[in-house]
Amino acid sequence: MANRFPVFAKERPGAMPLPGDRTVSALTKPNVLERWSEDGAGVRSLAIDDNVITMFDIIGEDFWSGGGITAKKIGAQLRAIGAKPIEVHLNSPGGDMFEGIAIYNVLREHPQPITVKIMGMAASAASIIAMAGDTIEIGAASFMMIHNCWVMAVGNRHDMAETAEWLAPFDQAMVDVYTARTGAEGKQVARWMDAETYMSGTVAIERGFADALLPSDQIKVDENAKAADREINEIRAMELTLVAGGMPRSDARARIKNLKGTPGAATEPDGTPGAADTDLMGALARLAASTRS
């Protein structure tokens, strides 16, 4: 079927602000990670050329895998590719929003055109990165999600008020970038962010967040990658759930690492999830339930 949406490359919006103090992390919510496990896990490029940067992971350094997409890594890849047009293949649940802003700023400085291809999902911080594209293509079955900056904070009402005040400029910066890209009114974009809005490929195009549908023959589902994505994503989501329940992040990681290190808590020899993963997920679920109670 012919693509009924034309491609319109637009001027990249300006740089976004980064906090001087990065002690506060802006994170992807557990429910977003769960949504990515259902809709985005294992979605990959069918072919990758030498001018392609792939982002098929969480944004920011990942404690659990040792991977993650960072501005430092993207900057190194851009230098290696040189002054050529770039394709960014994107399928990510987001992660550290401030790292996403840094990656966006690195990409927007590239002197050649950038095409962003959303394969699976561009959620939270990943949707910010997508806005660096001169042209944005999205799969018909893919999703883009935008929301307000989400952090975990503790303290009294004065601390919470201070945190809200500190976050406001970054939410406004996102509104400004989305507005510049889409042409929508800022108040409407803010309402979409307040509602944690998921947009299908066609809706993203209709609202101006993307320019064209990505042909389906450029996307594949890698079953091994899908299993690996889901496995590590369960761990990430559980960590955030435990922290949201009041457990310090270091304690949550220690508890999960302890469970992962128990007999039967590893993957099968070929790297695919087996009964051991079910045992681990059950143990983590019980741990989360005890924390909430």
Automatic annotation (TrEMBL):
Belongs to the peptidase S14 family. Pfam families: CLP_protease (PF00574). GO terms for molecular function: ATP-dependent peptidase activity; ATPase binding; serine-type endopeptidase activity. This is ATP-dependent Clp protease proteolytic subunit. One of its GO terms (cellular component) is endopeptidase Clp complex. One of its GO terms (biological process) is protein quality control for misfolded or incompletely synthesized proteins. Keywords: Cytoplasm, Hydrolase, Protease, Serine protease. It comes from Sphingomonas sanxanigenens DSM 19645 = NX02. PANTHER family: ATP-DEPENDENT CLP PROTEASE PROTEOLYTIC SUBUNIT. NCBIfam families: Clp_rel_HeadMat (NF045542).
